[in-house]
DNA sequence: ATATTAGTTGCAAAAAGCCGCATAAACCCG
DNA sequence: CGGGTTTATGCGGCTTTTTGCAACTAATAT
């Protein structure tokens, strides 16, 4: 392995995850810690990354958005890791927005080969870091609150899509009322996304369970997978064991 | 074995694998290390590959991660400030992507009331911070390099838009050749953007002046405003005083 | 506060590279 | 054709780069 190649790989990791651990790189590149440290030192000298105890950070991750403030990040990472196995090479995937989905994207395998449709610009930017992933951003009116595109134009385009899997973050989930929301437009959007997709996965941190909002998107039965940070056997999930819904 | 033959073989290996090791080439070509080194040196002098300790890398593969810390930021802020007066309440504006445009967006007046169409997710996210601005993100294939949407779908949507002003960042500008570019798709895109808009402003840091790339987007005459960080009276801009083009 | 983990510095061995020189083949030209 | 010139290649010695190890220090965690 040439030194420059290692440097490139390190930079790729950094751009992908905004951070690298020395120990991870030792495994990944199969060289001694000293070599990794020297690599990081050199890249740092070239102002390409920010070296810290234990690894290094991206110099410019403020460009997209600051993820140190992501709420319940640990839980979201657990959810992301559980979701990965659902995603396989060759699939066509439709995603919504939100920090949970972004965490998921950051955990995707490096060489995933898939097509992603998304209504979230930030998700698109994250996805673009994967060389073999095709990203299609669905355009339309841009919502200032939820940072996704919405409105008739988006719905129309969604109608033309036939995805294998739809990944949704959640505002609220309830055993009886299913997936619910507060905003009429977003509600329409989610309905359309679900029907444009063969299967669907709802990513939901546990504190959003057992909440029900004004507008119903769909019943639990119409969701394929529910992914939380809890074990499927957890008592909090007891009421969610319904037909057709697989808990992860 | 002729030298030229060796060079060809080396280049084929490079294009195939993106890398070659000196030691591999010694075996493959059955010559001394010194000869291989001289070969690589010569090919490197001709800018055909990137020489490193231990071998060489493909020039295209060798990713240029550099200046993620926005390059020539000062100049870009000056340009942004000069551009602001062109933007008035009620206008419909079409923008491209790039760091110059993002700087511009950051300098917009807080209470601007306008409609923006953009092909850049990052610009959309920035624009969303202005409460009275309506943002429409034009969707389509997402380009990993330039971080904008492109392709037929984008062109089609642009065709339906009638904007007052089109704001473009620049890859290269030349007094004779006008606005030029290297990528065919991006080229088409810019052409379409210009014709979907009544007026157009090109934002261009001075070091990109007098450079001409392979593909022509449009002549200087078809641009309404050229905005650089220089004074309009600067000698470097002498050749840009043409009919219909206003320097700022 | 102490154990653990990460980092630093200096050193040595191996690998790669560089420089000058010698040789031989190819070329040039009257 | 023949002498001078250029070009291509390999060799030997010397330098630089890269890497891992060991001893020691600094930072972090329990």
Protein topology:
Two copies of one chain form a homodimer.
Chain A: H1 3-17, E1 19-21, H2 22-29, H3 33-45, E2 49-52, E3 55-58, H4 73-83, E4 92-95, H5 99-106, E5 114-118, H6 121-127, E6 133-137, E7 140-142, E8 149-150, H7 152-159, E9 163-169, E10 172-174, E11 178-181, H8 184-195, E12 197-203, E13 215-218, E14 225-227, E15 246-247
Parallel strand pairs in A: 4-5, 4-9, 5-6, 9-12, 12-14, 14-15
Antiparallel strand pairs in A: 1-3, 2-3, 7-8, 10-11, 11-13
Helix pairs in contact in A: 4-5, 5-6, 7-8
Chain A binds a DNA duplex (30 and 30 nucleotides) through helix 3.
Description of the structure:
- The structure is a homodimer of 248-residue chains.
- By secondary structure, chain A is an alpha/beta fold.
- The longest helix of chain A has 15 residues, at 3-17.
- In chain A, helix 7 (152-159) runs parallel beside helix 8.
- Chain A is built from eight helices and 15 strands.
- In chain A, 33% of the residues lie in helices and 24% in strands.
- Chain A has two domains: 3-58, Arc Repressor Mutant, subunit A (Orthogonal Bundle); 68-247, Translation initiation factor eif-2b, domain 2 (Rossmann fold, 3-Layer(aba) Sandwich).
- The interface between A and B is large, with 38 and 37 residues.
- Strand 6 (133-137) of chain A pairs antiparallel with strand 7 of chain B.
- The structure holds a DNA duplex (30 and 30 nucleotides).
- Chains A, B: It comes from Pedobacter cryotolerans.
- Chains A, B: Residues 3-58 form the HTH deoR-type domain.
